[in-house]
């Protein structure tokens, strides 16, 4: 998500940077381009107008133009305006993430259209609450229209290793909700996630059913799940749900896709409800907290180092990483270590997702994707290294033409691919040597601060 918008805005700012000194006219011209970029990203028109006006008020005038780095100032102002549009303004703190500050059993109501990812998200939230918040979670499907939906939730509960309320055919949604709360009270569950039925579009019957369940269960959180790929329709869906049912937060799914991002930027202004979580994949652990400041940084190509480091901390084996870092410092990093590293990177999820979080990578990302640098490439590289003898892995210099042929055949790849891997490894070793020469001082500590 946000890729095209990010690229457009980076282009606008690159132009500003090249100019050095800025006139009011330069800033106006840049703002015009920012406006077009936002419209193309499918941001709602009133939101675009408001955002551009806010930037103009702050950017046009003597102060910015006279400052030491005017372009940087303009970027900062746009960044701040984006953060505000995303709901990160003053007074918005504390509304992010799920609020667990209520007596047990705490009911969470999941609402949304069919296909938005509601059931998957219920499973993701259950997993997160069990693992990260150490809560005892009960999942219950109130979708009496589609028995398959109830089975799907049961399967998700199994994968998330949480309890699912047993299915009793013929019960009405309110009866199921009552049974869920009853079980939760008796069996001391901390959180009950009620997954309501969805429809293909908003209709009066759906709203009435959801509203009745809400009135009965008095949920602490009512989370609306919307699909980022549906753009402004997602915003209109959110507006309708908020007006007719009332929601405490929004979960936006499929942000791993190429949604233009306008929905995320319009959501707060149009619906008044905060985005609390993002769904970034089909897997159960693909759920992210929504941080307006980090998203704004991501849009402006400044990367999202904080999220990257957090993701790394969650997935990477710390002891293993330290071992590798030591080897790098000593210059004894070999292909066997490289294979380990590939495995760790693979665990962090899609490579293009990771790259998107790095500053300045936005523009390169498309090229990298074209070059097919993805999970399948990691797998092929692993296969190539697996086809080497241990001696070859420790001493890659040994690998000459005949060995390359054998390795390519053994791994089902080509000699070119083997060459590419060896070249990449060489480049990496070179870089490590240079980094070591620069001294370790700032590298490990300052690098991430
Ligand atoms: P529901 O009808 O709203 O309950 O939707 P489901 O939970 O059944 O999801 C519909 C489809 O979307 C499933 O194939 C999910 O795996 C997929 N899905 C859900 N969330 C995400 C997400 O964040 N990213 C991607 N790529 N797919 C998702």
Can you walk through the features of this model?
- The protein contains 22 helices and 8 strands.
- By secondary structure, the chain is of the alpha/beta class.
- It has 3 domains: 3-85, Up-down Bundle (Four Helix Bundle (Hemerythrin (Met), subunit A)); 106-302, 3-Layer(aba) Sandwich (Rossmann fold), CATH 3.40.50.300; 317-350 and 375-448, Signal recognition particle, SRP54 subunit, M-domain (434 Repressor (Amino-terminal Domain)), CATH 1.10.260.30.
- The protein has an 8-stranded mixed β-sheet with strand order 3-2-4-1-5-6-7-8, sandwiched between helices.
- Helix 7 (147-160) links the parallel strand 2 (137-141) and strand 3 (163-164).
- Helix 1 (3-19) runs antiparallel to helix 2 and helix 2 (24-40) packs antiparallel against helix 3.
- The longest helix is centred in the last third of the chain and has 24 residues, at 415-438.
- It binds guanosine-5'-diphosphate.
- Guanosine-5'-diphosphate binds next to helix 6.
- Guanosine-5'-diphosphate is lined by residues 112, 114-120, 198, 253-254, 256-257, 279-282, 286.
